Every structure is written in C-alpha cells, then in structure tokens.
Input
Amino acid sequence: MHDMRRILHIDMDAFFSSVEQKRHPELVGKPVVVGGEGDPAKRGVVSTASYEARKFGIHSAMPLRTAYSLCPEAIFVPVDYEEYSRVSGEVKAILKQFSPIIEDVGIDEAFLDISSIDRPSEEIAKEIKKRIKDETDLTCSIGIAPNKLLAKIASDMQKPDGLTIIMEDDIQRRIWPLSVRKLWGVGPKTEAYLKKMGIHRVGELASLSLDRMIEEFGQSYGSYLYEASKGIDESPLVTHWEPKSISREATFQRDVDNWQVIAKTLAELTKEVVINMKEEGYQGRTLTLKIRFNDFKTYTRAKTLNKHADSEEEIRRAAFDCLRRIELTKKVRLIGVRVSHLKKIGETIEP
Output
C-alpha cells in the first residue's frame, strides 16, 4: 500500500445565498432564493437556495416559478456573478496558503491535497474553516478521505458547517448504506436503471461482479462504477497550472441555448487560438473545451491529437468532437477553448 493520500474537499455552504445574506443582513434567517434576474414571474432557475428555503423543498436547477409556488414568501434575488467570483477568489487564496496542490472545481468548491503536510487532517480542516469564517464570514463543509470520490461524498454528509473524515475501513459502514445517487457520475438516468435492477444503495452495487457491471454499462463506465462502489478512485487533482497553453473564452451577455450561436462562437474562439499559436510559433496537441451552464456547473472535455498541429481545421474538428460529448440540456453562459501540450515549431519533444 502506497502512503495514504489525504484529500480534502471544501464545499461552501449555500454559497450564493450566504453571500447575499452577508451583504444584506436583513436576509439572515429568511428563505432566500438566488436565481436568474430575481423575478419568479420570468423564466429562470434557482442557482442556490438558503437552508431556510430548502425546508420548503426548493433546490438548485428548479424553475423559479416552482420555487415561488412552494414558498411565496421567499425573497428572490438576482444572480450577481461578479460578487460571488470575488468572494470565491478570497476563499481559494486562503486554500492555496495551506497546499499548492489545489483543484478548482467551480465557484464554490475545491479539492486540496494535504498528503505531504505533517499535521493531523482534522486540525488542518478546522484551521481552514476558521480562516474562511474569519475572513469572509462564511461557513463551508469539508470532507477528508484517501481520494477525491470519498472526500466529495464526505463533505456532503454533515452540511452545513460540517467536517467529516472517511478512512478506507469506514467504506462498508458509512458509504455502502448511502443511495447510489451519492456516487459521482450517477445521475437520474443511471439511478432509475439501477432501481430497475433492484439496486438502491452503494453496497448493493458493490456486490455486483465486474463482468456484470461491464455488461450493463459498457467497459469504461462499468469499470468506473465497480471501483467507485468500493470507494476506489485513483484520479489525481487537476491543478490547471500550465504555463504552456493558449486559451480564449467568451461569456454571453444572455445565456444561450441556440445551437447555431454556440457553434459559431466555438469556431471563432478556435480561430483566435490558432492565430495566437501561429503568432507565437507553437503547435499544440491537446484541445480542451470548457462549457459553463446558467446554473454555473462547468464541464470540460479534452481531445488529444496523434501529433502536434496548428491547422485551424484540425483543431476546430477536435473542438466540435468535444462539444458532441457534452449534453446541451441547459442554457450556456460561457464557452472556452484551450490548446495545451505546446511545442515550438522545429523543436522535438520527448514522447
């Protein structure tokens, strides 16, 4: 067994609504719903609901209208992305002081690798919580575990203001009784399919053989579920610290669900990146597409070419391959394109 990894998952509690409650103290203790333009009569979805609003069954991604019908006395507030980004930046700056190995997962969560810090995990987590509370007056929930999968499940176990540690020998007792939906990558479709198979809990999933999983879900997803149900996850933290990459992104003034606009924007961004690469004399090998939806969930897909290239056509084709791998079920807020694994033209690179 290699040295135990210690991974922390930090999840800000009801982040958008908590920021609003800090700015407007009169909202504290009230059901606050942050979403869209803050008008439940207009189209839009809930980005975050305060814990007081969640008691009425309001949750993120729910239409604002539905939230209003569940709790007409709720206070509806428009999304103020600038302010949330600013506060998020403060939180991430605090985290970086604890460990340079940080994966930014989104505006309100991050993973931190503390394996090489010679202090008890719980002590580090408590100090992080205290610093965040002192400097931003917000609370977060932290999960600590040997890998990202378990750390993420742990941070959700005692919200808000929780601190949960899961060790390898806790998996059967604490993870197996959970609903399969708690596993990363199990959405409503997979959950419904598993129910039909008579599988409701992680432990029931863990009892299936690898062959059966692959037969039901295909090689890659089947193997993933087989390992995940046993709490196994070797995935590294993606730290995005890459000096050699060229990227462009565009944020839409209004969230877009028109495929033509999305495709045209993607083609333009790709073109700009390629022009920039050529100006600097680089060829690239990996294209990463980033899409952020109107609920601020961000997805990335990457494609690595068999050799370094700087042809606009090749790189655009890779970008559209990536786009096909993202379900466009919600309105898009931002599109980004990045080319990495760069090499100067004429330079040979070790494989």
Remarks:
- The radius of gyration is 22 Å.
- The longest helix spans residues 259-280.
- The chain has a mean pLDDT of 92.
- The domain at 1-166 is CATH 3.30.70.270 (Alpha-Beta Plaits).
